[in-house]
Amino acid sequence: MEMTVKDERKLVEIWLTNAEKSDPVLRAGLQSVYDTYKKKKYLVAVFESGSCDLYEQTRDLLLYNRQRMAEQEIRREKAQRMTM
After folding, report:
1. Partner of 36 at 20 to 30 A CA spacing, among 10, 11, 17, 77?
2. What angle do CA 60, 64, 56 make, to 5 degrees?
3. What is the DSSP code (8-state) at residue 15?
């Protein structure tokens, strides 16, 4: 487990490995971290390791976002032409 506290942003990042994310004792122990930082009005974000290929998943997400942006742009252009 890796924990990073970013006081300037009131943010706590907790990174869990595949083994750690499945450990009920460790997960229960995180409750004290949540409680401590909740009192300070910090946001606690827990990131869990995945089982998929990070490169492929990131590539697919970027391609999807690019396609979606292009589709939205086409819709905007069509809407502008219809109002002229």
Report:
1. 17
2. 5
3. E
